[in-house]
Structures are given as C-alpha cells and as structure tokens.
Amino acid sequence: MDLVEPGTLSLKADHLTCVRNEIELFRDLSFELTSGQVVQIEGSNGCGKTSLLRILCGLALPAAGHVIWCGTTIQKDRISYNTRLSYIGHQNGIKGDLTCEENLAFYQSLGNAREDISIDSALDQVGLLEKDESPARKLSAGQGRRLALARLIMTRAPLWILDEPFTALDPDGRELFERCFDRHCSKGGMIIFTTHHPVALEHSQIQFMRIGHDKH
C-alpha cells in the first residue's frame, strides 16, 4: 500500500441500526476512523459484530443509518469503495484446489495487488514459502489463516475489515498478524476487526467499540 497521510481517508458509521430476523441487534451506532487508526469491535456472541462488519463492507444494508467513505455513502460509489477495501470473514477466502502460490496469483490477477511485493515475498513473510506448491485444502486451520494474511500483505487496499482474524492461530501467528497491523497503520492504513483474543500493537493505538444491548 502506498503511504497515506494521517487523516486523509475516513470511514464513518452514521447512526447505524441493525435488525436480523425481526430482532434488533444494535441501534444508533456511530463511530469514525481515519488513516492510521484501528477499531476493535467488542460484544457478546450474537450481539451483531459480524452483521456490523458486513454492513461496513456493503454486503448487507442497515435498517437505518449510513456508512460513509470519505464523505460519500458507500452505496453511491460501490466500485471505488470496493477497490479500497479488503475483507476477510470467518472463511479465509482461499480456494482449496489451488496451491498457496496459485491462490495468491489468482488474487493478483484481480488487479488490486501491490506491484512491489512478490508472491514468494508474501508467503515468506507469513512462514508459508515452503508450502507454496501445497494445495490450500491440505493446510492446517492456522496455516489457512496465514495464507489469508499473505493476501492482506499483497493488497493495495487501505481499509481492512476482518472478522476474528486471530482464530486458529498460535502465539507466533498472532504476533505475526499484530506486526502486520502495525506496519499497515504506519503507512496510513485503517483496520476494523473483531476478536476474542487480547491484541497488543506496538505502534498503533486501538480504539474499542462495544456493541449490543449490554454495552452500557
């Protein structure tokens, strides 16, 4: 990702309300982050954390409110917004029949990958270089998460939205993600994520946003 000056980019959740199966998960939720900032979404199971991330990605619509990217609602310029966003949900977004190298080559072919980071470099950074020719379906759960991180390392998108990115990772894997988070934010990147794990970033301050009816 090219260096982005602090405060250049912004994402705003503007009075969001989420209803699923006629149950209100959260109401009138607002927060904002700009270049270089990190937001950790907290809340009990079933409170709507994943639903919130899907709304922020434009994959679901809120019952009320808006998601605003750099002053414009994301519905008005979806194509542009999608190029600035990298989303990883509970699934890693990898194809099991392709090798690790082929998965990253496929992502590279979609046109939003950095030109200054090679596939081998990305795999090496996440400890999977020796697995480059291994089918993704043969990876362990933690290795699959590392492959998803390799895709993040390669992306030019400044905004990362991640649902439980530390799931299945050992302590070394979690530390690897934390270093990647710090590096991304130092270049002006933005991260919104959920997790049940404690997270320690050396250079980036985490803002905490608790949602659900137990937030008070």
Short description:
The chain is an alpha/beta fold and 216 residues long. It has helices spanning 49-57, 78-83, 100-109, 119-125, 141-154, 171-186, and strands at residues 10-20, 23-34, 38-42, 64-69, 72-73, 85-88, 159-163, 190-194, 206-210. It folds into 2 domains: 1-84 and 157-216, Rossmann fold (3-Layer(aba) Sandwich); 96-154.
On the 0 to 100 scale, the average pLDDT is: 92
How would you sum up the major sheet?
5 strands, parallel
The CATH architecture category of the largest domain equals: 3-Layer(aba) Sandwich
The backbone outline, from C-alpha atoms, is: globular
How many β-strand stretches?
9
Strand content: 25-35%
- The total count of helices amounts to 6
Whole-angstrom Rg:
17 Å
The helicity comes to: 25-40%
Class by alpha and beta content: alpha/beta
Low-confidence stretches: none
Descriptive notes:
With 216 residues, the chain is of the alpha/beta class. The chain has two domains: 1-84 and 157-216, Rossmann fold (3-Layer(aba) Sandwich), CATH 3.40.50.300; 96-154. The protein has helices at 49-57, 78-83, 100-109, 119-125, 141-154, 171-186; strands spanning 10-20, 23-34, 38-42, 64-69, 72-73, 85-88, 159-163, 190-194, 206-210. The strands form two sheets. Strands 6-7-8-3-9 form a five-stranded parallel β-sheet, sandwiched between helices. A hairpin with a 2-residue loop joins strand 4 and strand 5 (72-73). Helix 4 (119-125) packs across helix 5 and helix 5 (141-154) runs parallel beside helix 6 (171-186). The longest helix has 16 residues, at 171-186. The chain is globular, with a radius of gyration of 17 Å. The mean pLDDT is 92.
